[in-house]
Amino acid sequence: MGERQSGGATPGRRRAHPDRMTARHPSAPQAVLDDAALEALLSAAVLRGHRPDAAGEQRALAAYRAARAEGAHRARTRRRDDWRPRERRRLAMSARTTLSLLLASLTLGGVAVAAINSSGPTEAPEERRTSPSESASRRSVAPSAQSPAAPRTSRPDHPGTARDTEAKCRAYDEAEGRGRAMESTAWQRLVAAAGGEDEVAAYCAERLATAPARPGGGRGTGAPGDGTAGNGADGAGTPGAGTAGTPATGKGQGAGSAGSAGSGGIGGNDGNARNSGKNKD
Amino acid sequence: MARGGEPRRALAHDGELGAAVARAQEGDEAAFAVAYRLVQPGLLGYLRGLVGNDAEDVASDAWLEIARDLGRFTGDGAGFRGWTATIARHRALDHLRRQRVRPRSSVLEQDVLELPDPSSTHERALESISTEQALRLVRGLPRDQAEAVLLRVVVGLDGPAAARVLGKRPGAVRTAAYRGLKRLADQLGAAGVTDDGPGTLGEST
Question: What domains appear along chain B, each with residue ranges and CATH number?
Answer without folding.
Answer: 12-103 (1.10.1740.10), 105-205 (1.10.10.10)
